[in-house]
Amino acid sequence: MRFWRVAGILFLIGAEALLYGYSYPFFSLALEKRELANWLIGLNASLAGVGILFFGHFLPQAIDRLGIGRLIGLFFFIPFLAFGAILLFDHVFVWFAARFVMGTCFSALWTTTEIWLNGEVDDRNRGRIIAGSGTLYAICQFLGPLALGLTGVEGSLPLVAAMVPLAVGAILAVSIPSRPLAPHEAADEAAFEGVGNLRVAITLAGTILLVAFISGIGETAMQSLLPLYGTAHGLSDAAASGLVATFALGEAVLVIGLGLLADRYGRRAVLIGATLVAIVSTATLPFAMGRDLLLQPALFLAGGTIAGVYTLGIVLIGQDFRGQRLAIVSTGFGMSYSAGSVIGATPIGYLIDLFGVEALPVAVAAGFIALLAFLMRPARATAGTSDPFAAGK
User: How does pLDDT run across 215-267, given as a tens digit for each residue?
Assistant: First the structure.
């Protein structure tokens, strides 16, 4: 029974990633066809990432009250209705409202499916299964734009094509038997009464949330600014886009290997090693430009280890937390990553304006150096926390 539950959750993760990869180019291209200003198209894209920062505080309570399967089914069904609203009421306001609603639901899906999967897998195989889900996510996200190429962006076909997997996901989510989260411990109730979930998550696992925040900054900045980095070094638009493809390939391939290493050699040690490789590989980029034999491996390693640091953070959460604490810390982890994603590219882009394009790899490497310093600090027992780094686990 557990095998089929895990398989069903992995299917939901794949469907979620496919829709995520499909919706981003769909909205941009469809709104461009409506001759909207570029800043409005950018605003529409930003709406997809901010909803979880508001709703995330209530996510653990929603899981507790509705059950995780029913809640995930709702997160598939609401975007189904949003696409249907665009189909019925083709108005700019509906496009923007639908994007906000979908972005919130997709971000919440990303967090809740991770919580569900982490609660179902056994600790012996946790690293490889969580890492495998990350690879599955990357592959399905890559397939999303390809599917859009088949449907096009005009007419009802692309909307209907998105609604079909959403309907399947909603039905499957409520059909998978789910075990309830462990009840609240009395100590938790006394300690956390009246305290916001994000603050609780920081109290329980501040270092792990820093892992998510730095990963969000690094991944978003590299994916969004690497094309500019390439063109500044004289590459064509196609070659500059190829830098992102190599970076993304590393995300898809290396994460599963890091998961296997984590199960065998220890999650904390592998996380520290991945952070160190992320520093070296990003810092190598200024010296690697123009030398493909060095550039392609550096980008590949940077993509794999930056994504791997995030994935190993999820593995550590599943290893060290159960029940409501798992929901609270996982939600805080997702919110921290989203916060890094929302704010990451803007200040680094400003640094590029001030100091030139080499500010991109230098700033990303500096962020991971700061993370490494936190991971390597002397372990100490801290009351009221399960942080594996603060407690020396």
Answer: 888 887 887 777 778 888 888 766 776 787 788 788 878 888 888 888 788 87
Residue 384 lies in a domain: no
C-alpha 53/C-alpha 273 separation (Å) is: 30
**Residue where a domain stops, chosen among 137, 153, 181:** 181
Residue 217 vs residues 120, 186, 213, 347: alpha-carbon distances, Å: 29, 37, 6, 10
Answer yes or no: are the C-beta atoms of 338 and 110 closer than 8 Å. Answer: no
pTM for this model (two decimals): 0.70
The answer as to whether 392 is a domain residue is no
Give the model confidence (pLDDT) of 116-159 as tens digits.
887 788 777 777 888 788 788 878 877 887 788 788 888 889 99
Tokens of 373: 């310093």
What count of other Cβ atoms lies within 10 Å of the Cβ of residue 215?
Answer: 29
- State the virtual CA torsion across 339, 340, 345, 346 in degrees, nearest 10: 50
Using DSSP's 3-state secondary structure scheme, residue 113 falls into helix
The two three-digit tokens of residue 200, written as one number? 């609780």
Q: Which amino acid is at 86?
A: I
Identify the residue whose tokens are 């904390």: 268
How far does Cα 346 stand from its chain's mean position? Answer: 18
